Structures are given as C-alpha cells and as structure tokens.
Amino acid sequence: MQVRLASEAAPGRTENEDHAFQTGPLVAVLDGVTAPPGIDTGCIHGPAWYVSRLTARLTEVASACSDDPLADNLAEAIRRVRGDHGNRCDLNNPATPAATVCLVRDSGQTLDYLILSDTTLVTERAGQVQIFTDPRFREAVAQLRRVPVMSDYAIGDSDQAAPVPQTINRKYQLTNQPGGYWISAANPDAAHQAMIGSLPLTGKDRVRRAALLTDGTSCAVDEYAFLDWAELLDLLTEQGPKELIRRVRLAENADPEGHAHPRYKRHDDATAALCIFDKESR
Ligand SMILES: [Zn+2]
C-alpha cells in the first residue's frame, strides 16, 4: 500500500484541528470539532489536543491489537484518551472535544474501514467508484435545518459565524444519542456505532485506490462540485493531496461570503489521504 497524506489548517488559523496519519497498515483522517465561541465544553483541552491524543492512542492500540476489529481499536483509543483528560474535565458534557474519523486497514486479503460522522471514503474497484459515508450525520444536519434560523449559515466579519444557541443546543441533543449521530468523543460506545465494512484486496473486484477525506476536502465534490468522485481520485493520484487542498481554497475564495455555498466558515481545515494498492504484491 502506497500512501500519500496532506492536512492543512484553514488559511489564517495557526492550529490545524484535522490530522492524517499512517501507522503500519492503518491509515486515518480525523477532524476535530470546533467548539462554538462561548460554549462551556467542561474541558480544559481543545479539539486539536483531542485529535493529537486520539492519534497517539490509536497508534498505540493499532500496533498492540492489530487483529482486533477497527471498532474495538477505536473504542480502546477513546477509553485511553478519557484517562488523558485527567480528573479535571467533565466528560459527560455534550460539548466535550470530539472528532470525526475515517480509518482503513490493509489486512492483507481485505481493506477494513470505519467511518464516523462526516468523513468520506472513496474507493475504486473494477473500474467503479464507490462512496462510503455515515448518513446519520447528514440526517442530523437536515433535522437542524428544518427549523430555519437565517443567521445560522451566514459568514460574518470575523470570517467564521457562530451558529445561534438554539441550533447548538439542538445539535448536542443529537450527538452520540440513539436517533442522532455518532462521533468520537469521550464515549467508547460511539466506536461500535460506526459504519464499518471490509472490501476485497485480492481478485478482480479488489480495491485499487482508496481516498479518505475530511469534510474540508470532500466539499470539492459534494459542495463546490468542481470535480466528481472519479476525478477527485485521479487528481489525488496524479497531483497529490496538496493540490486537492489548493483547489478547495480557490473554490472557497471564489465564494467568500457563502452566498453560493452557505456554510459556517469561509475556510475549513482540509485533509486527504490516498492509498494505492499494488496488484503485483497480492
Ligand atoms: Zn479535557
């Protein structure tokens, strides 16, 4: 498996709350959830800290328990990050630091995957491009949008709009709850609610390429639509993940106020990983 990764903070922000990494056969992209200003998260840490701890714990668990299902690996990593908070944080607070997750693992015969919240996995098998997402996050967003609040999606002078409090509270009521959506935060059970599966890495239907995307790069297709999924895979293969991020920045800059593409933030942290599977080695 050849892997290429890129992750960049939104322009003007010093801290990247996204991350991409490879450790042995495991490849991951993570997107820390930005806490809206003024929200009590019950935690002295932030999303970048959470992503960094989850990366460290996943790396540790993945190498020690590489035969366990990915969901078990993630659950154990979440459990260990709970300990990393120390005793000062209220981990029952619904605004506790959280991250969306996409994992793939080359298990020799199969490519195992796990998706939580709004990350996207794109695969190419036998000339067909397939998209894997977690529909529950989109359903939660759709529920929130059914009660329209005009100021919800306007980008303000500060370059980043704060969603209004009613929306934030409604969102937290849907977070890591049955009937809502699941995300990696402080509850290990969320890992067992992830979208999981295995795809062949041998035979004629084997996976040739796989891309793991945070919403900061999947927006190239599902928001800005300047590429389709097959073109996105080709761009990643031919020009690399950094070029995909550069093109997303161009699209964001072409709609700075979010008129054509309503969104909370002018720019988002952006991350992509491409895995290419070598048929010669199978
Ligand atoms: Zn904490």
Give structural attributes.
single chain, binds zinc ion, alpha+beta, five-stranded antiparallel beta sheet, Phosphatase 2c, domain 1, 282 residues
CATH class: Alpha Beta
Gap between N and C termini? 11 Å
> Going by CATH, what is the homologous superfamily?
PPM-type phosphatase domain
CATH architecture: 4-Layer Sandwich
* Small molecules bound in the structure, each named once: zinc ion
Summarize the helix and strand pattern as letters: EEEHHEEEEHHEEHHHE
Explain briefly what this protein structure is:
This protein has helices spanning 47-64, 70-84, 135-145, 165-174, 215-222, 229-239, 241-254, and strands at 2-8, 18-23, 26-32, 99-106, 110-116, 120-125, 128-132, 195-200, 207-213, 270-276. The chain is an alpha+beta fold and 282 residues long.
Question: Can you tell me about this structure?
Answer:
The protein is α+β, with helices and mostly antiparallel strands and 282 residues long. It has one domain (2-281): Phosphatase 2c, domain 1 (4-Layer Sandwich). The protein contains 7 helices and 10 strands. The protein has helices spanning 47-64, 70-84, 135-145, 165-174, 215-222, 229-239, 241-254; strands at 2-8, 18-23, 26-32, 99-106, 110-116, 120-125, 128-132, 195-200, 207-213, 270-276. The chain is globular and about 50 Å long. The N and C termini lie close together (11 Å). The model has no long low-confidence stretch (mean pLDDT 90). Bound molecules: zinc ion. The site of zinc ion has 5 residues, from loops.
